[in-house]
Write a structure and sequence with these properties.
Elements: H1 4-26, H2 58-61, E1 66-68, E2 75-77, H3 81-85, H4 92-99, H5 113-129, H6 140-152, H7 154-158, H8 163-182, H9 190-206, H10 210-226, H11 236-255, H12 262-277, H13 296-303, E3 318-322, E4 326-331, E5 339-343, E6 346-349, E7 351-356, E8 368-376, E9 379-390, E10 393-403, E11 409-416, E12 423-429, E13 433-437, E14 442-448, E15 453-458, E16 463-474, E17 477-487, E18 493-500
Antiparallel strand pairs: 1-2, 3-4, 4-5, 5-6, 7-12, 8-9, 9-10, 10-11, 11-18, 12-17, 13-14, 14-15, 15-18, 16-17
Helix pairs in contact: 5-8, 6-8, 6-9, 9-10, 9-11, 11-12
Length: about 500
Amino acid sequence: MMSFSGITSAIIRKIKTSYSKFHIFASKLPFYSLTLISSNPDRIFNKLNLSFPSEYSIDLITQSHIVVLKCSGKSIFIRNIPKILLSSSISTIEKAELHSFGWISLLNLDADKQWRLMIRNHIKFWMSHFKFSDDIAWSTPVTSERLYNWIVQYNLISKTSDIKFNDMLVKSISRQFKLLRRQLYLPLKMTEKTSLIRALAVTAAAINDAKTVQLCLKELQHNLRTEPVEKSNYSTQELLKILRNLVDIQAVISAGRKSIPTVVTNTMAKIATIIRQIRHPDGGISIFKSEFTPSAEYVDAILSHVENAKFQDFNAGYLTLRTFEGTTFINLNDKYFPIEFSFGIQRIVLGSYLYFTDRNLNFSNTVEIKHSVIKEKSNVWFSGNSRFKINDANVNFEKSIYINNLGTDMRCEEKLSDNSLNVIHYIILPSDVEITPLEYQNGFFMDLRSGIRWCWSFDKDTKLSFDFERNAILNGKKVNVTLLSITTSEKNFLRWTLKKI
C-alpha cells in the first residue's frame, strides 16, 4: 500500500506533467511567444569543457564543405542548408537533424572567419523563418539539441560578430531555454528526456542559474529510478546517445561542485558495460538496423568518462558469442534476433532483419522472447523464440544459429509460423566486397579486399536480390553497404550457410 508521502509525490508528479503537456498545447496558439519574453542574461559562459573527438572520421569532414546526415547518410552542402530546410527534397527526420544544428560541431569555426560568418547567417535565417508554429523545428527533442549546440558553440559563433546579431542570438537562447524549462516534466523516452535535461543543465550553468540545474538533477534521478535504461529496448546508438548525455550532465554537476547521485553513476556504468560488450574487433559498436555508428575514437572518449569496475556480467539484452577468430552479436531485445558477425577485424554481416510487405499490419507491443545457448568443444548453438500478435493472430518466430569453434562456419535457420504473411529477409553486407554467383548452387562467393573468400549458400528455391548503393556511416566513415533481399518459395522459412573458403 502506498504511503501518504508516496501519494503526495504521485499527485505532485501528475500536476507537473500536466503543466508541461499544457505548454506543449499552448505553444501552438497565437501570441504564445509573448509569454517567453524575459530579461536576457548579462553573460553566457559555457562551463561544459569536455572535449570529444568527432563522431565522424577526419577524412570525411576535412575541407569537405558538406555535412553528412546521421539519419540517412545523405551528403548536403553546408551553404545550401537554409534552402533545403524550406524545400521538400528531404525527409522529416533529415530536417529535424538540420534544425538541431549539430552539424556546427563538424566545422573548425575558430580557424576560418568565413565559416563563422556563414553559420551566423544560417542562424539568422533560422530565427527569421521558423516560428513556434513549426512542429519540426520546435519539437522538444530538436529544440533540446539546438539549444545545447548553440551554448556549446556560443563562444565561436559570437566571436567577432556584431552587437545586433549577439542580441538576437541571446534573445533566442533565452526563449528556447524558458520554453524547455516549462517542458521539463514531459514523459519522454530516455534519449529525448536526457537530451532535454542536458540542454537545460548546460544552459543554466552557462547563465549561473543554479536553481534550474538542481531541478534538472532531481528530474533525472526520478526518471532513472522509474524507467531503468537497461530494462528498455534501446538500440546501440540510442544507448550511446543516452550515455553521452549523462556524461555531459555529470560534468555540469561536477563543475557546480555537487556530488553525483548513485543512480546516475550506476546507470552510466551499466550502459558503458553494454557498449563495451557489443564492440566489434574493429573498435566500432554494432550497427544492427541503424544507418550510423560513430568513430571508434569517439566511443573510446565517452567510455573513458565512466568507471569500468562495475556490472561486468551485465548484458541487458545483447549477447556476444566468441569463437577462435569470429565474433557474433545478437540483439535479444528484438523479436527477430538480428545478428552481426565479424571475422578478425573484418565485419562480414552488418545486420539482419525481417520486412513485412503489407504495411497495414498491426503488431502487438507485448512480446515474449526466450533464448538458449549451448557450447560444446567451443562450437556454439543459439536458439531464439519469440511470440507476439499480428492483427490479433498469435505468431511464433524461431531462429537457430550454429557457429563452429573457429568462426569459419555459420549456419542459420529462420521460421515464421504464419504462412499467410509476405516477408522479405534482409542481410546487410559490407560494401568493399566482390560478389560472384555460384555456378552449381544457389548462392555466391564474397571476396574481401584482404583476399579472404566466404561462400554463402541458400536453398535452391530461394531468390536473392542485391542493392549495392545503400548509404550508411560505419565507424564515422561514409560507406555504401550492400543490402541482400531474400524471398523464399517455402513460405516464411529461410536457411543459409556461410563458410570461409
